[in-house]
Amino acid sequence: MRELSSIDPLGVPLPSGTEVTTRVDRVLSPGRRVPQGAVGRVTAARGDELDVTIVGVGVLRYARSELVPRKMGQLRYAQRRAGAWEALRPTVVLEATVGSRAWGLADEGSDHDLRGVFVLPLPWASGLAEPPRDLVSEDGSATYWEVGKAIRQALRADPNTLELLYLHTVRPLDPIGAWILAERDAFASAEIYGSFGRYALSQLARLVQSQRLAEHRAVVLDWLRRDPAPDLDTVAERLARAIFGATPSGGERHPEPQASRRTFPTEADAVLQAKEYVKQLYRSLYDQGLLAHRDYPSLVRFAREHAADLDLPSDLRPKNAYNLVRLIGTAIGWLRSGEPTFEVTGAFRDLLLSIKKGELSLDQTLREAEVRARELEAARQSTPLPRRPDLARADALLRRIGAEAARRWVLREPGPLGRDAPAPPAVALDDERAGGTEIR
Predict the structure, then answer these.
(1) What is the spatial distance between Cα 164 and Cα 99, in angstroms, rounded to a whole number?
(2) Between the CA of residue 151 and those of 147, 165, 172, what are the distances in Å?
(3) Could you tell me the residue ranges of all domains in the chain?
(4) How many other β-carbons are positioned within 10 Å of the β-carbon of residue 287?
(5) CA angle 133, 139, 141 (to 5 degrees)
(6) What is the pLDDT of residues 377-404, one digit of tens each?
(7) Which residue, 26, 139, 240, 359, shows the most beta carbons closer than 10 Å to its own?
(8) pLDDT tens-digit profile of 78-108?
(9) Among 125, 191, 126, which Cα is nearest to 153's?
(10) pTM for the complete prediction?
C-alpha cells in the first residue's frame, strides 16, 4: 500500500471498462435504493460524469467524485494506462475509423471509434520493464496496438485487426504505416472461416442462451418467494426445463411455458448450466451490495424481501447480435472473392439494421445466421485465399519496422521515434508484492 499512497483514488482516470465501487447511495424511486458500495463497470464518460452499469439495476450516472476503482491494483493500472497514452500517442503510425461508421450502418447516435497501430521507440522496447502493448483513450473510443501485437493478431486472422488493415477509412500517419498496408495481403487466409464465421455463430448461440436466462430471472425470484422455497437443485431442474426443454429427474412436469429451445447434449448438462446461472445471479447481486452473503440462502431472503421492487433488465444486446451476423456475411464474401468488403449495402444492410434496432428476436437472428452458415461452408471449399498467412513476409515486415525505429533513434532524427521520443518510465523494484520482487 505504501507505494500507492501518492495516488489519489478520486483523481485517477476511470476509462471505459473499469470496475468501480460507489461512494454514495442512489435513490431510484421511493423504497428502491442502490446502496453505497455497489459494484459496477464504467461504460461511458461524459465530462466529469460517468455512466456505470450495475448488474440487475442498469446504467446509472455518477459524478467522478462518487466513484473509486474497485481494486487497489486498478489505481496503479489506471495511472500507467494514462501515462502510456500521453507519452506514446504520437508514435501511432496507422489509424482507421472503425465500427458502424466504416460499415455503412451508422445513425445519429453512433460512436466515432478509432483503432490503429503504434511503434515503441527504441528505449521503450529495450529496457527491463515490460512496455505497454495497448494504448486506450480514457473514454475507450480509441485503441491502438503495439505493432508486434498487431501483426501477431493479424496472423491469427483476428477480425478487428484485419478490418483495421483493409477498411477504406485506414490511413497511414507515418511511412511505417504505409509499409504495413503494403504487406497486408500477407495476413489474409482461409482461416477467416473460423475467426470470423464460426466464431460469430458460436457467440450468437451464447447470446441466445444468455437472453433466455435473463428472461427467467423474475421467474426464479418468484419461485423463491414461495413457502417453502425450493432448494437450489429443484430450481435448477425447473429452470432447465423452462429454458432448455430438459425433463426434471423423476419425470415431474412443471407448468411453466416453453418457448422454442435448443437442447444440451444431455439433461444433466442443461441442469448444470441452469444451476450455474442461479449461482451467477446471487454472485452478481452480492457484488452490487444487495445480498448480505454470496450464497443461495441470501438469494432466497432477497427474493422474499426486495425482489418484487427490483427491475432486472434483459441481457439482449442487438448491437452485438447484428455485428456477429455482419461478420458471417463479411467472411462469406471474402472467402468467395478473395477480396474483403466491409461496407454493407442492399438487403443485407436492411437486415442488419433490423437486428440492430431490435426488430428481430434473437431466435430469428440466429436462424438467419444458420442459413448463412451453409453459404459460409461452401465459400470455404472454393476460396482463392491461401490456406495459411505468409509468416515469412510478416516476420520480415516486423524486423524492418524494428530496424527503422532503431535507426531513427540512433541517428536522432526528428520525430517521436527519434530525437523527440518520450522518455521511458523509470524502472523500480516492487518488493511490496507477495511472492517476491517484481520489476515495474
Answers:
(1) 10
(2) 6, 10, 16
(3) 19-69, 78-187+390-439, 189-231+272-388
(4) 20
(5) 70
(6) 999 999 999 999 999 999 999 999 999 9
(7) 240
(8) 778 888 999 999 999 999 999 889 998 888 7
(9) 191
(10) 0.71
